[in-house]
Amino acid sequence: MRVTQLNLHTAPAGVSPAELFVRWPSLADIPEAVAEGGARVTVLQAAHDEARFSRHGVDYHFFPVGGLATAHARARRVVELLRTGVPDVLHIHSLACAEEAYVIAQAMPSLPLVLQDHADRVPAWWRRPAWRRWLRSVDAVAFTAPSLAQRFDVAGLFPPTMRVFAIPESSCRFTPGSREIAREAAGASGAPLVVWVGHLNENKDPLTVLEGFARLAARVPAARLCLLFGSAPLRESVQARVDGDDLLRDRVSLVGPVPHAAVETWMRAADIYVSGSHAESCGFALLEALACGTAPVVTDIPSFRELTGNGAVGRLYPVADAARCGDALLSLARSPSPRELIRDHFQSHLSFRALGRRWASAYAQLASAEPVRA
């Protein structure tokens, strides 16, 4: 099986491939996972400068797109590259590349195309007629959870023939470790210790989580909550909520931003990972918690249902429901989930090896199927 993965989001100028792999880890992680399954994988990466090399069994071609101002121009350049060694399947990252996919399909009608969602937005109504035409040339799309495709279906963008695969955007290389050592390194304690990792914004909904944690603290006084976050438009509201509640004031710590490597330490230290997200295309912090064997209490949204096996590990609660969040936290505090069970779930369904198997199966189905494009 020969697979080409196409990334048309241009690499930043002046950033070497080695630096780019650090900034964009999934650029290498996903193709390498597929290659481990036996496929021959080539990555075409839009860039400012030309570069060709192989890394961990994957061939990379960084191709310059300077002067290629339109989707048609970029797509025609990709067609030229593909014709030097036509793959069995073309995997295009981002539904935002629907126009480029259309041009490629017109030039290479027998080449199966799959687009992968990366938190892509449904286009404005006035752009949808063009998108409907473009997506008629695509054989399949991939979302973390199949129901995430509904927003495109409701907009009438997918033809009836469109195949939908359920494959998470990425995975995580974190591992379980000593909780005691991690707590010492993080300087954190609690019984249970609850950790939040995410921006303090409306979508992440920290205020609902704080209310839910207050309900836990009222029943379990030894509980502690640590909030790790980057951007924080709601910081003042969060701080005011903490300062104004006796149940929260001495039990909640606003840790703020930490290096990504330190997130692994915090996830190992935690008894529970909590999230209040209203919508996510995947859930990278949730993946990190599961990789460390940390039990999650997360909202009942499509991507989180998919990643937790419909709540097979951890607890799910309705979006913006502080009472149910508190109930879920209390349930896990009283009946902790075995870390080994959570890690086994991650390894079986969400690890890079598991994702490689999922993509290999999807590619095989596309390569062997009769063309059914609308």
Q: What would your notes on this structure say?
A:
Helices cover about 40% and strands about 20% of the residues. The protein is an alpha/beta fold. It folds into two domains: about 1-170 and about 355-370, Rossmann fold (3-Layer(aba) Sandwich); about 180-350, Glycogen Phosphorylase B (Rossmann fold, 3-Layer(aba) Sandwich), CATH 3.40.50.2000. The strands form two sheets. An eight-stranded mixed beta sheet has the order 3-4-2-1-5-6-7-8. The protein has a six-stranded parallel beta sheet with strand order 11-10-9-12-13-14, with helices on both faces. Helix 4 links the parallel strand 5 and strand 6 (about 115). Helix 3 (about 70-80) packs across helix 4.
Summarize this structure as a short list of keywords or feature phrases:
374 residues, 2 domains, 16 helices, eight-stranded mixed sheet, Rossmann fold, 14 strands, alpha/beta, elongated
What structural class do helix, strand and pairing data support?
alpha/beta
- CATH topology name of the largest domain: Rossmann fold
Query: What Rg is obtained from the alpha carbons, in whole angstroms?
Result: 22 Å
CATH superfamily of the largest domain: Glycogen Phosphorylase B
Order of helices and strands: EHHEEEHEHEHEHEHEHEHHEHEHEHEHHH
Which band does the percent of strand residues land in?
Answer: 15-25%
Query: What characterizes the major β-sheet?
Result: 8 strands, mixed
Enumerate the strands of the largest sheet in spatial order, edge to edge or round the barrel. 3-4-2-1-5-6-7-8
Instruction: State mean pLDDT (0 to 100 scale).
Output: 95
Low-confidence stretches: none
What is the CA-CA span between the terminal residues? Answer: 25 Å
Return the domain count.
2
Alpha plus pi helix count: 16
Q: Would you count the extended β strands for me?
A: 14
Helicity, as a percent range? 40-55%
- CATH class label of the largest domain: Alpha Beta
What general outline do the C-alpha atoms trace? elongated
Specify the CATH architecture of the largest domain.
3-Layer(aba) Sandwich
